[in-house]
Design brief:
Radius of gyration: 31 Å
Length: about 400
């Protein structure tokens, strides 16, 4: 019996899915657990495995098209099975939930295509007939670039066609190459907004406009931090980053200041006893925040390895829903891009986010008047004033700085 496969909900906030790639085509054998399709959600691109066994008989949502959660996605059944009734029953639902421009049946494609070709050919014929000056594309381009009037040039190509050599000889003969003709034209490109970008816009707008943000900045000496990085590399042959170390240090500070490890829930404030730290990772079309769970119970090298794996998954769009959920505090580090200091928007429903700038060298004056070069870094914490008061946030940063 044919089974109707619907657009799955692959994240807690997913409302619409976009098909990135089908790994099976109509007519292919499908087993339970086979990779069937890749779907872009509001957070990442997820691989979806088939829950059914049989033949892929029909696809409702093609590559590049979108559909809401629970909309018809495909039909899996037995070879030769008549699914016309099932298609008819679900086609109306597809049309209701998907823009007409996004869903086109194979029959529609084949019937419309010839008319498109005919329209193009009809448009092109009169254009060719009305063309008075015959010139090669290269000749036209040269003439436009150097401001040459093609009507003044006699062509030596087939049937009097003006070719590149004719334009160059005319320029040389008349010395008309004084200043190339410059023409400027306003232009732009519209790009469709991805599901991820829509969700970023929605969630961060809600956070910025609903949570009363305020900001606390501290400058910290990083000589000890950089020495720690080097020592770990030399002693344990492990490479850790500044972000790795900050994840560990923040997890320790959060256990000492549970007021920061919290969320505003409207009629109550939730204080988490566990520490799950999200780390903002830039990807091609937006930003994702994979989560280091129970960070306070993990070693620095464990955190480093896990964060590298999560960051690579994020760039490959292979993160699982559970790897993106549940963070209680977030770190955003733009130091690797040369940013000295910035403020970040709180990642809801958390109450705070730490924005980290680059490690930089500064010259300081000692008490005796001498100078020394030190390494420093700026950290700015954005706080939700509904949850965290200024003094509370300052105490946390002092602990982190220490």
């Amino acid at each position: 019996m044919a089974e109707l496969l619907k657009m799955p909900r692959l994240s807690d906030t997913m409302e619409v899915g976009t098909v990135v790639a089908w790994h099976k085509k109509v007519g292919d054998k499908v087993n339970v657990g086979d990779l069937l399709v890749e779907i872009e959600t509001d957070k990442a691109t997820m691989e979806f495995e088939s829950p059914y066994e049989g033949i892929l008989l029909h696809i409702f949502v093609n590559e590049g098209e979108s559909a809401p959660v629970d909309a018809p996605l495909a039909i899996i059944g037995q070879e030769g099975e008549d699914i016309s009734d099932l298609i008819n029953q679900t086609q109306q639902q597809v049309e209701e939930v998907t823009p007409s421009s996004a869903v086109t049946s194979p029959q529609q494609v084949s019937s419309e295509q010839p008319s498109i070709v005919e329209e193009k050919s009809e448009e092109e014929k009169p254009f060719v007939q009305e063309e008075r000056i015959k010139a090669s594309p290269l000749a036209k381009r040269l003439a436009a670039e150097f401001g040459v009037d093609l009507s003044k040039i006699k062509g030596t190509g087939p049937e009097g066609r003006i070719i590149k050599r004719d334009v160059l000889e005319y320029i040389e003969r008349t010395k008309e190459i004084i200043t190339p003709a410059l023409s400027f034209e306003e232009s732009y490109e519209d790009r469709p907004v991805s599901s991820m970008r829509l969700t970023i816009a929605k969630r961060l707008s809600e956070s910025k406009f609903s949570a009363p943000h305020y900001y606390l900045t501290v400058n910290v000496y990083t000589d000890a931090l950089l020495k720690l990085k080097q020592d770990i590399k030399e002693i344990f042959d492990e490479k850790v980053s500044v972000t790795d170390i900050l994840v560990k240090l923040c997890s320790i500070a959060l256990t000492k200041h549970p007021e920061i490890n919290a969320s505003w829930l409207g009629d109550k404030i939730r204080y988490y006893k566990h520490v799950h730290i999200g780390v903002a990772v830039a990807v091609d079309d937006g930003l994702v925040v994979p989560v280091i769970r129970f960070a306070n119970h993990k070693s620095l090298t464990q955190i480093s390895k896990e964060l590298r794996e999560l960051a690579q998954k994020a760039r490959d769009k292979k993160l699982k829903p559970e790897e993106l959920q549940g963070s209680t505090f977030t770190i955003s580090n733009l130091g690797m891009f040369g940013i000295d200091q910035f403020t970040a928007i709180i990642n809801p429903p958390e109450a705070a986010i730490l924005a980290v700038g680059r490690t930089r060298q500064e010259v300081e004056v000692e008490e005796d008047g001498s100078f020394k070069v030190v390494s420093k870094m700026s950290m700015t914490m954005s706080c939700d004033h509904r949850v965290i008061d200024g003094a509370t946030g300052a105490k946390f940063l002092q602990t982190l700085k220490t």
